[in-house]
Amino acid sequence: MSKDHSHAIPVNSNSRSLWIALGLTSTFLIAEVIAGLVFNSLALLADAAHMMTDVVALAIALVAIRVARRPTDSKRTYGYHRFEILAAAFNALLLFGVAFYILYEAIARLNAPAEVSSTGMLVVAALGLVINLISMKLLQAGKDESLNVKGAYLEVWSDMLGSLGVLIAALVIKLSGWQWVDTVVAVLISFWVFPRTWILLKETMNILLEGVPDGIELDKVEKELLGTPGIASVHDLHVWALTSGKSAMTAHLVHTLPPAEATLLIEPIKRQMAQEFKIFHTTFQMETVACEHSADGCNFIAD
Asked: What is the pLDDT of residues 104-117, one digit of tens each?
């Protein structure tokens, strides 16, 4: 019996882009809150609330990156990579909370629309749109490598749509005088956020529950392993993610070769898993006879 481990896990921090985006959104958040109160616009305040979650998401992403860099120890042998996923889950729950609060405020305003300064709304929304577009550009490269960065990107993206909605609402109010449009746009912004937030939360929960990462099909992984000459069967096959973009895998491989030859199979299989499925952290146990399964896992029965 032999075991082998590979630990080459790619790392990408995206710190510089996150810091720039955080500076831009934090500065504009303060301006938008003040403008929402001065111009009496719920749509602006809704957009500011979403921008607040942008700021929190970016700040948490930076903290998560810093924590994830901490070395492994005897208590946390995988390090602190999962902190990023906890942060992303927190961001999703925060977004849900903000969206529900805006809906609550909007229902109250529908019965008594408030007087809104459309000119002020127009200027602030236009500035917000520019800020969001810049932040999106900064985060775009890292969103497919990190769920934490993806969460921040989705929030900035939804806020960009919010700014666009406020811009349209301001134009409609200015041209028609329909004050209720401000409240309707605030509601639409909240509803727009729900499905995207749910997708983010579902992805984070899949990682926390050690589900198979998106883009990897377990049947195909097993088929590739069985296609290796000398491998008779595969059992106790597990594929999960330590964090976004960092998949891990363990498997017991029953072989029909002499022990020395079976050991030589491990390196090619590792390379195959890395090339085909981007799984860089692998552990394979080579066996001549499949171990017996039980509720506790795979056990060997003593003679």
From this structure: 777 777 776 667 77
Does the pTM exceed 0.70?
A: no
Residue 157: how many CA atoms within 13 Å on its side-chain side? 14
Q: Which of 48, 58, 194 is nearest to 121 (CA)?
A: 48
Q: Which of 208, 224, 258 is the last residue of a domain?
A: 208
The 8-class DSSP code of residue 142 comes to G
Most confident among 45-49, 85-89, 129-133 (mean pLDDT): 129-133
| CB-based burial, 175-207: b 16+ in 10 Å, e otherwise | eeeebebbbbbbbbbbebbeebbeebbebbebb
Which of 165, 191, 208 marks a domain boundary?
A: 208
The per-residue pLDDT for 41 is: 75
Please, are residues 208 and 85 in contact by the beta-carbon 8 Å criterion?
yes
DSSP β-bridge partners for residue 281: 7, 248
Give how many domains the chain has, as a whole number: 2
